[in-house]
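Collaborator request, handled under Task 6.
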Amino acid sequence: MRKRNTLSVFWIIILLCGISFSPLSQAEDFRIIYIIHGDGNYLFHNEEGNAINAAERILEQAQFVGANIRRGEVFIFYQKPAENFLLFFPKDDGEFHYYKNGKKISVESYPGKDAKDYEIEAGLIRKYSESTTKEMKNILLYYGHEIFQQNSPGYHSSYPEKEFGINIFANGVEKLINSFSTTEEQFDLIVLSTCRNGNRETINALSSLTDYLIASPGDIHLSHLNSESLINLNQQEQIDDYDLAKEFAKFAYQELKEITSTEISISLYDIKKVSGISDCEADTGITEFYRSPEFGRRD
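Structure tokens returned to the collaborator:
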């Protein structure tokens, strides 16, 4: 009897060895990069008259997302207003947070005055980015004022002489891509939570850097595109780039409807389809989320 049981176990092992098991999950990890421009006038007052810093609120949301992305890594760059120590010594005005699989790994500061085209940010990504050959969803989110169409001074309150514009931004985005440990050539999605950057100049500047772009042709004011949908999207087994971008834009639109009465205009651009079209208002390759204005702001 014991010999028969031994033979049975032997044949079971042989059969199991011939079976090819697929991985339990084919879901892609996310690589999410936040750039939050806090060096400007981002204050507003709620109905109780309390002053609220919109940039700090976005930072808190980014940290919440970082702590809840279970597959992948989150880089947060917060550009703060410049301050001096003992009146004369400049303090670092860049703040960096790095999360991996929901765990905060590092918090560092860096100088923003001499930072050019996101070189420092790219260096920090290169320092911490996961070394892997597997596919990743690469997502860049930029929060700030409207990015100038022409490189011009005046964007940064602490450094009014420092130039910024869509071409400088695009050069910086390319540096971020080159900092990845993988061989990615572009982002899957870029989100611009800014006013009036849903235009031809922005599309042309970013056409080789992303598959999809979310931007507003109108004003967002000090409201912002909520990014918490990335948490649920990260938990899905599989999602293609368009559905990822569409769900993000849809969620952000619904959240804005809850807190504002002003016009909402969010556009999702399929870069491959719209980059060859002369008129950005053409329907091909553009998914729009729009609500006409009411009055005031609810918050």
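The cover message to the collaborator said: "Residues 26-291 form a domain with the Rossmann fold fold (CATH 3.40.50). The longest helix spans residues 241-259. Please let us know whether this matches your experimental observations."
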